[in-house]
Amino acid sequence: SAAAAAAAASGGTKRLRPPAVIYASRTHSQLSQVVRELRSTRYRPNHAVLGSREQYCVHPKVKTNGSSASDINAGCNKLNKERKCRYRNNLEGFVPDSNESGGAGGAGGCGDDGDGGTFGSQPVLDMEDMLKMGKQRKVCPFYYSRQRLEDAELILVPYNYLFDPEARKTSLADVNWENAVLIFDEAHNLESFASESASFDLKGIDVAGCIGEVGRAAGYLQMMGTEAAADGPISMDNLVKLKAIFLKFEKYMETALPKAGGSFDGEYIFKVLREGANITYANY
Question: Where is the composition biased (Gly residues) (predicted)?
Fold first, then answer.
């Protein structure tokens, strides 16, 4: 390209970004074991350990003992929309100390090799380390991990971040997948995990939970005020209609489906949705 030719003519060189290494495991506890092993080496890659708001939030008014995942997501989004989350705001210009994690200096006390910090003194942090750092330094571990993702050479994620299309579009949207290296820990679990990911259990308690979520959403809508509600994609009328659909569906499950439950082919769910909630291809 012209830019590359100009750089070559001027003697400048453009450093190529190495392919991302994405390490996936079933649980965060297994990922933490990997981080501990990494900490015992000289290697200090730019890395990110991804998790949910529910796992990473340290804001005492957002994450309380009784808060659900949806409560935390809603509270987080509200504060950040108003730029009132001091934990996220404190990330501006934030640099973690090299001793944020135990043994961050690495085996043998290595120094920077001048190649972008691969063997530098940046801390190697797992989820527990970032939670501790967030509470002590008053910064948000969730958004800190997202910031680290931008330049990460090593990305540690649970399986579901790779199997879930929405997670790939959101949490992993900034990943350069070209020439990326995927490593699956305990890959013999992939078949069962893929099967579980493509299946689901539908229980009465799940529908009851949906009804409760709609009620909480209505409460958040009222809390945000009529002006904010009018500008948003969700209206109170729509929530009332949605709750009515769930109530009808809950009654259908109690009266029309086998009491003992059962396993069915995937097509069966369309029959259930059509009869129980009047949801079809035409109106979905």
Answer: 102-119
